[in-house]
């Protein structure tokens, strides 16, 4: 058994405010004996417009948020998986990235979000991530960590099972979906999608989520969840029921601590083998 910590925060446009929230969680996770801490998508900042998103971006090597977390990982000897922004290769865009900081404080892996969230729901969220974000081009093979082989994805990637199936075929035991889901799509789809990914991959699913009002325009659903390879919810944090009633600064950082038994992954896969008909449809 190994303890994983899943953190829930409410990022704003203030990198220092967001770092403070994360630091609290690192210390609590380390004190509880966790072997890794998982933080949400865009933990470094959530801005109120595409231009503000682009104006706040800094490289990993100069971002006070990332440098601060690297220091924290080193002093707490705790690996941290955290969603951030990085400058894109092309002009006037950013990358939506997930990085792995190891227990020595070194960034050892990064995944760039493949699927961008462009929605226009009448009376609901209107968001065009592709205005400010450059899509990634690669699936990053699962990384070896103290809590098993981890397959990295981000938020909206959750709606595309192909990427998780590919990671599972490459050996992933734990799938991560750091997120900032909207409230209406969260209420309708979040738990169902996450449990689906856990069941069809027979893997643990860890989803660290943003929760609460980020600014005048944006509220995230929260409901950080950990799911077992049989599809059962093992732990969850608080969620937003009514986006309009949500006030800024209402949500405190939360930490979920869960005992993962990686043997359950092997057990599920042994007892209920999912043999694909790749003679009929393509292998992913
Ligand atoms: O904006 C940032 O800086 C960070 N990025 C996000 O919050 C992204 C893009 S707007 N959010 C999602 O992908 C939510 C997906 C979702 O809610 C769904 O699939 O229903």
UniProtKB/TrEMBL annotation:
Keywords assigned: Hydrolase
CN hydrolase domain ranges (all copies): 1-262
One record GO biological process: amide catabolic process
Entries under InterPro entries matching the protein: C-N_Hydrolase, C-N_Hydrolase_sf, Nit1/2_C-N_Hydrolase
Any one GO MF annotation of this record: deaminated glutathione amidase activity
Coiled-coil regions, chain positions: none
PROSITE patterns noted in UniProt: CN_HYDROLASE
Organism domain of life: Eukaryota
Matching PANTHER family: DEAMINATED GLUTATHIONE AMIDASE, NITRILASE-RELATED
Name of the protein: CN hydrolase domain-containing protein
């Amino acid at each position: 058994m190994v303890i994983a910590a899943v953190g829930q925060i409410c990022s704003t446009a203030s990198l220092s405010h967001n770092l403070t929230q994360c630091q609290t969680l690192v210390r609590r996770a380390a004190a509880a004996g966790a072997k890794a801490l998982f933080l949400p998508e865009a933990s470094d900042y959530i801005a109120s417009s595409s231009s503000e998103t682009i104006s706040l971006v800094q490289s990993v090597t100069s971002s006070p948020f990332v440098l601060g977390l690297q220091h924290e990982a080193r002093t707490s000897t705790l690996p941290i998986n955290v969603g951030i922004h990085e400058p894109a290769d092309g002009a006037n865009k950013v990358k939506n990235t997930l990085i792995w900081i190891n227990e020595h404080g070194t960034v050892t892996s990064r995944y760039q979000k493949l699927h961008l969230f462009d929605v226009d729901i009448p009376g609901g969220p209107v968001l065009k991530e592709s205005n400010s974000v450059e899509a990634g081009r690669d699936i990053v093979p699962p990384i070896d960590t103290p809590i098993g082989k981890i397959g990295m994805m981000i938020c909206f990637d959750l709606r595309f099972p192909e990427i998780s199936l590919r990671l599972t075929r490459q050996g992933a035991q734990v799938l991560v979906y750091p997120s900032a889901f909207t409230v209406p799509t969260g209420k309708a789809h979040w738990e169902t999608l996450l449990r689906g990914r856990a069941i069809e991959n027979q893997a643990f699913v860890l989803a660290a989520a943003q929760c609460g009002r980020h600014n005048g325009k944006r509220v995230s659903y929260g409901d950080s969840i950990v799911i077992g390879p049989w599809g059962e919810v093992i732990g969850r944090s608080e969620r937003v029921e009514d986006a309009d009633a949500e006030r800024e600064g209402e949500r405190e950082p939360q930490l979920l601590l869960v005992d993962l038994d990686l043997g359950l992954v092997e057990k599920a896969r042994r007892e209920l083998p999912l043999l694909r008909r790749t003679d009929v449809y393509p292998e992913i």
